[in-house]
C-alpha cells in the first residue's frame, strides 16, 4: 500500500510527464569539446582535493601518550 503523501507525488509526476512532448529537448545543445574537457578536469581536481583533505584529517597526529599510572576501576588488567 502506498502512503497518501506518496500517492499525491505519483499523481503530480504523471501529470508532469504527460506535459512533455516526445522527442523535445530543453534546448541544451552538445557541449564543445574544450568545455567538456575542462569540466571533467575540474571535477577530477575537486575530487582529488576532497580525497587529500579527508586523508589529512584522518591520519593520526602526534598526541601525548596516556598516563599508565592511572587506576582503571572497571577495566580488568589495567590496574
From TrEMBL:
Topology in the lipid bilayer: Single-pass type I membrane protein
GO cellular component, one term: membrane
Segments crossing the lipid bilayer: 36-59
Subcellular location: Membrane
Pfam families per UniProt: DAP10
InterPro entries the UniProt entry points to: HCST
A GO term for molecular function: signaling receptor binding
Residues spanning the signal sequence: 1-18
One of the protein's GO biological processes: positive regulation of phosphatidylinositol 3-kinase/protein kinase B signal transduction
Keywords, comma-separated and alphabetical: Disulfide bond, Glycoprotein, Membrane, Phosphoprotein, Signal, Transmembrane, Transmembrane helix
Family indicated by similarity: Belongs to the DAP10 family.
Name of the protein this chain belongs to: Hematopoietic cell signal transducer
Species of the source: Phyllostomus discolor (pale spear-nosed bat)
Amino acid at each position: 500500500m502506498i502512503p497518501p503523501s506518496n500517492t499525491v507525488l505519483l499523481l503530480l509526476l504523471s501529470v508532469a510527464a504527460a506535459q512533455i512532448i516526445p522527442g523535445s529537448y530543453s534546448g541544451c545543445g552538445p557541449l564543445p569539446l574544450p568545455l567538456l574537457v575542462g569540466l571533467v578536469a575540474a571535477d577530477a581536481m575537486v575530487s582529488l582535493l576532497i580525497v587529500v583533505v579527508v586523508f589529512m584529517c584522518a591520519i593520526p597526529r602526534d598526541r601525548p601518550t596516556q598516563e599508565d599510572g592511572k587506576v582503571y576501576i572497571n577495566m580488568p588488567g589495567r590496574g
